[in-house]
Design a protein that fits this description.
It is a single chain. The protein is an alpha/beta fold. Helix content is 29%, strand content 26%. The chain contains 10 helices and 20 strands. The strands form 4 sheets. An 8-stranded mixed β-sheet has the order 6-7-5-15-16-17-14-18. Strands 9-3-2-13-20-19 form a 6-stranded mixed β-sheet, with helices on both faces. A 4-stranded mixed β-sheet has the order 1-12-11-10, with no helix packed on it.
Length: 394
């Protein structure tokens, strides 16, 4: 495609969030161009597990966004073509407590979640093996979350982009955000030429801080590295996404140190996916045997049969993290015409649809489905002093 070109909206980033922004903006009548320096789903999306979760969220703005997003995912998946194309599966989640104290804390969290609209089902110790027959013995109990679902993230991003009808320019790097003399956005400059538009959506994931800085509107997006271990294909022995109760605390932690908590789930293709690890090490992709060993040990504590299963590979990705654990979504008053849709950390697949809907509503000036205040991109002070880790092109 020859540049320059003109459109209504430029979305920077062809991952899951960018694809959802393109879909809902195009559905609202905008002419959309998506630009990414890599391939579709080449960043965080391609290194994700595709989880659409409410179970791991405490009551508050992120849970509200998750419930909106889950509803929109279900609406998309009501079309059998979409359902098959994105491998949508309403598998449900099971959060397991090892001790009575852990179960008490989990039960308290579930009560708050239920009050916020989540369906929760208590599972006593004597019922655990009816729900997950291969779980370890001696666990205190669990809570089942039937609303948790899953998609195949790379397929989902590609399908939503196709469905949007947007122009998709891959292998094209944004080098500047163009602004008029009055400060308004007027498009982007790339290494292939310019794309002119009155609106730019920053959906660049872990690269979101760099895009924001190019626009003169700094945003403190930081990477948190995570590994996923993949087993050989197996019969469907694990029915749900199963994880230990301390996973919720790890997600909310501000620690830069390594944290691991077992997260185990089967897939339609057969392999079992094993997570989850979190650590702030910049964009270091170095393979870490200690981390992978910790993941394997945690998984076998939940499912002892996995000790005899071969691990086929491990992969790593970077989750775009903001200091208050909420994404930046919506217009940036520091740069009129700039919209942010980044900083979702490990929840971006699940929150993508709601984010895309909110961005489309903001572009049109419509009343949003949710209060946008907690997600305001300009809510961080002194971001001008931050140094953003540089993500090298893959």
């Amino acid at each position: 495609m020859t540049l320059p070109l003109t459109c209504d909206v430029v979305v920077v980033g062809a991952g899951m969030t960018g694809a959802a922004c393109a879909l809902y903006a195009a559905s609202a009548g905008f002419d959309v161009t998506v630009v990414d320096r890599g391939p579709v789903a080449g960043g965080t999306t391609g290194a994700g597990e595709g989880n659409l979760l409410v179970s791991d969220k405490e009551p508050g703005p992120e849970l509200d966004l998750a419930l909106l997003s889950l509803r929109l995912w279900a609406e998309l998946a009501a079309d059998p073509v979409v359902r098959d194309a994105v491998e949508y599966e309403e598998k449900g989640g099971v959060v397991v407590a090892a001790t009575p104290d852990g179960l008490a804390a989990l039960t308290s969290l579930a009560a708050g979640q239920a009050a916020a609209g989540i369906v929760t089902e208590a599972v006593g110790a004597g019922q655990l093996h009816d729900v997950e027959p291969h779980l370890a013995r001696g666990l205190a109990g669990a809570v089942r979350y039937p609303q948790d679902a899953q998609v195949m993230p790379a397929l989902a991003a590609a399908h939503l982009l196709r469905r949007s009808g947007a122009r998709v320019l891959t292998g094209v790097e944004v080098t500047a955000v163009l602004r008029a003399p009055d400060g308004r956005i007027r498009g982007v400059r790339t290494d292939r030429g310019e794309v002119h538009a009155p609106a730019v959506v920053n959906a660049a994931g872990t690269w979101g801080g760099e895009v924001a800085a190019l626009a003169g509107a700094p945003l403190p997006v930081m990477p948190r590295r995570g590994f996923v271990l993949v087993t050989e294909p197996l019969p469907r022995l694990i029915r749900h996404k199963v994880y230990a109760a301390d996973y919720v605390a790890d997600v909310a932690s501000d620690s830069a140190a390594l944290q691991t908590s077992p997260v185990v789930e089967g897939t339609a293709a057969g392999p079992v996916l094993i997570g989850a690890s979190r650590e702030r090490v910049g964009f270091d992709r170095t393979f870490s045997l200690p981390v992978v060993r910790a993941l394997a040990a945690g998984a076998t504590r939940l499912f002892p049969f996995l000790a005899d299963v071969h691990a086929m590979r491990a992969y790593t990705g970077f989750r775009p993290y903001l200091p208050d654990h909420l994404p930046a979504i919506g217009p940036d008053p520091r740069a009129p015409g700039l919209f942010h849709a980044c900083g979702h950390e490990g929840a971006g697949i699940g929150l993508a649809t709601g984010t895309g809907q909110l961005i489309a509503q903001a572009l049109r000036g419509d009343r949003p489905d949710l209060d946008p205040t907690p997600f305001r991109p300009d809510r961080f002070a002194d971001t001008e002093a931050l140094n953003f880790p540089r993500q090298e092109a893959s």
